[in-house]
Amino acid sequence: MIVTKAESVDLEKILNLQYLAYQSEAVLLNDFSIPPLKQTIEEINQEYEKGIFLKAVDAGDIIGSVRACIDNNTAYIGKLIVLPERQRQGIGTKLMSAIERECAVARYELFTSDKSVRNIQLYERLGYVRFREQKVADGLTFVYLEKH
Fold first, then answer.
1. Among 134, 143, 139, 132, which residue's Cα sits nearest to residue 30?
2. pLDDT digits (tens, 9 = 90+) for 55-111
3. Three-state DSSP string of the chain
4. Which of 5, 77, 118, 146 is deepest in the core (most CB within 10 A)?
């Protein structure tokens, strides 16, 4: 498996992988209308133009991805995704390390649902620390984590 920069031709595959990877999050939240499941190809193209996309490739297939945008010496990391059957094999960890190297800024920030215990455990294992929680809807609270 290799981690490399994604190209614009990869975006449709990354979006399809995103739809697969976020199914478990939708189940946790009991909400299949979450933004990652509604994102369009046009929206991901716009995000690509403004940020950095990485992909994890194994045997020619994209099995993971992560993206970030940099503002004021902070990298805002989003949508760490791994093919469901390949999760818990270190791919997410490799993608996170790669995006941090690629961005090389003073601070990294991300958020996830408070119900995403596995995600929070991964981020904390990688040195991220909770700094804020925000209730965004009934039954939905985002946990914000940072790393310096």
1. 139
2. 999 999 999 999 999 999 999 999 999 999 999 999 999 999 999 999 999 999 999
3. CEEEECCHHHHHHHHHHHHHHCHHHHHHHCCCCCHHHHCCHHHHHHHHHHCEEEEEEECCEEEEEEEEEEECCEEEEEEEEECHHHCCCCHHHHHHHHHHHHHCCCEEEEEEECCCHHHHHHHHHCCCEEEEEEEEECCEEEEEEEEC
4. 77
Which residue shows structure tokens 């993971």? Answer: 64
The Cα 22–Cα 116 span in angstroms is 11
Structure tokens at 107: 């601070």
